[in-house]
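Example 3.2
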Amino acid sequence: MKKIAVGLCVFFLVFGWLFANGQKEREGRAGTIELSLMMPQSSWRDVYADMAAAVKADTGYSVEFQVIPADQFYPLLQTKLATGEVPDIVKYNVPTNNTEMNANETMVDLSNEPWISRLVNPNILKDPQSGKIFALPIESSTFFGGIYYNKAVLKKLGIPDKQPTTWDELLNILRKIKQSGTGIVPVACSEKESWTTQIFMTLGFPISIADRPQIWNQLLTNKIKWSQIPEFKTILDRYNTLFKEGLVNKDHLSFTYDMAKEAVASGEAAMMINGEWVIIDILAKWPNAEIGCWNIPFTDNCDLIATGNYVGGFFVPKKGNSAAARKFLEIWSRPKYQNMLFAAFPGFPGLNDVNGGNVPPAVQNIVDTYIKTGKYVYEMNATMNVASPILSELWKYYVEMTAGMKTPEQVLKAWDVLYTDYMKARKESGF
């Protein structure tokens, strides 16, 4: 994957002309059919440009990709939705982010599109309020997070490639890497992009209270404060330990997600904490890298993984060129083009006639062990999607903690204030 400069929108233009005079119409359309597609930088895959080129050659439909830095994507999208100056297609998570975009009002209902009958897992796409489907999915399975590590590094250092079952076991592995004298960074952290920082807490919080899931409803109804949940402080303390003990890269505040992937792939770093896409991203660019996956031992001997009830999807804003966008997505959904995606990035397709490619064994093992067997809890962002518009502020608090500007207690108390004010403004029950 090519790095995309932060702070800039990178546009990949793939377009063709259809001539009405003397030429055969393609897909029943004559003339130029140009569309815009907006997505966060973290979602970009170079193969999208190849897919778009193939669509253009076959049908004449053209697409301009607007790739936005992840931390700027949501504010920009909200502005566009408010002004009506929207792209024709938006790539975002579904159904978790339906609320953020007010999908029932701003997005086209795609529940009756031709590709609906080909969905592997339609239930995961349905809006919790209306039951409608607003996006063409990429995947069929849910997100899960873990520790993604370089097997060759562990072998070099004589560290057994064995799932740690307690937090102390994991810490001891990381300390051994630091003390090896090789200069290998135990954990590559990319806090220039705060969405990567939040993953540890987003996964860890629900694992820590897996035996008391009612706490989420208590938080939603103001019966308990975030700072009153000791397990949350423990998770913050554990994450902060990585930084206090120098188990991460010194330049973590300026390090990007792409830089972290490269560090792990090259062996400059042993591990990184992120989502299952890490393995696929790394192997797409560094096919000889030996990458494994461990479940994060947030609590001792916990046989659960945290997952999200969302997948990446393509939405059609009502105020864009919705008719052409719907047609483009129907074309985009066809096996010819989807197979290109999964050949480059193997995974679990959202459509039942698409070949998922050679899924890395480590990813398949996690799916088989936890997802298919029901050994999971939903991650925090999915559970607290009502607070989606302000969660990015909480992520900033996490970074302030790792930078030494806030203690774990101060993070939770600051979030208490922001969260309470937000819920009061929404007039949520209990606030």
